[in-house]
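Standup notes
- DV: blocked on the single-chain target, sequence here:
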Amino acid sequence: MEKEKPLFAAKQELKTDQDFELAIMHKEPIEAFQDRMRMRPISTIKSFNEHSVRITDGTIIVRGSSRFFTLSEEDKQKFMTNK
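- DV (later): unblocked, structure below
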């Protein structure tokens, strides 16, 4: 059987509305950064609009000044086992 292709690449930046919609639908764990500093612990996205992103702990992060990335394979495994 052929291995299923992952939805997101490791460390892929979420840029478009479609990226955010897919991350919400598939409960993709993400990291949010401002400059090179991680803003919050690894989490999933609860909702978004053109100006901000709300993560599951309730924190609202401004979309224009932050960058959102999927996890590396190693970090994703750690996140899933600690869940």
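- Follow-up: The two ends are 29 Å apart (CA to CA).
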